[in-house]
Amino acid sequence: MSEENCVFCKIINKELPAHFIAENENVIVIKDITPKAPVHFLIIPKKHIVDVSQLTPQDRDYAADIVMMAQQLSEADSKQKSFRLVSNNGALVGQSVFHIHFHFLAGTTMAF
Predict the structure, then answer these.
(1) Which residues of 49-80 are buried (b: 16+ CB within 10 A; e: fewer)?
(2) Residue 99 annotated in active site
(3) Distance of alpha carbon 106 from alpha carbon 9, whole angstroms
(4) Which of 19, 40, 99, 101 is the catalytic position?
(5) Please, how many CA atoms are within 13 Å of residue 92, restricted to the half-sphere of its CB?
(6) What is the pTM of this model?
(7) What angle do CA 96, 14, 22 make, to 5 degrees?
(8) CA atoms 44, 47, 51, 55: torsion sign
(9) What residues have CB less than 8 Å from 51, skipping those under 6 apart?
């Protein structure tokens, strides 16, 4: 999927609506529209990167900001202290939007 047709790029550019939770220079956080847990956010870099395997050394700040944003989200609410951070890498494992993003899931007991 090209950057022009990417739903997350359109959300980042405010061309599509989303429920924004947080934002910094490199990432946004939005509520997932089909939550799998009581707390289900998506942490999305503002740069269009297809998936984890496409990260380059120049993308280091984006990767670090994703993890640091997860930490900040976990500190924002006691039900988010324990969380799962998940990213699907490729269609065979469930990636449906080909712009790297991480699911921040919290608020319930989760099995592996």
Answers:
(1) bbbeeeeeeeeeebbebbeebbeebbeeeeeb
(2) no
(3) 25
(4) 101
(5) 0
(6) 0.94
(7) 80
(8) negative
(9) 87, 89, 90, 95, 98, 100
pLDDT tens for each residue of 14-51: 999 999 999 999 999 999 999 999 999 999 999 999 99
Architecture of the domain whose range is 3-106: 2-Layer Sandwich (3.30)
Q: Which two tokens stand for residue 57?
A: 């050394």
**Radius of gyration of the chain measured on its C-alpha atoms:** 13
Contacts of 62 (CB under 8 A, 6+ apart): 26, 27, 45, 46, 47, 49, 55
What is the number of alpha carbons within 13 Å of residue 51 lying toward its C-beta?
A: 15
How big, in percent rounded to 5, are the helix, strand and coil portions of the chain? 35, 20, 45
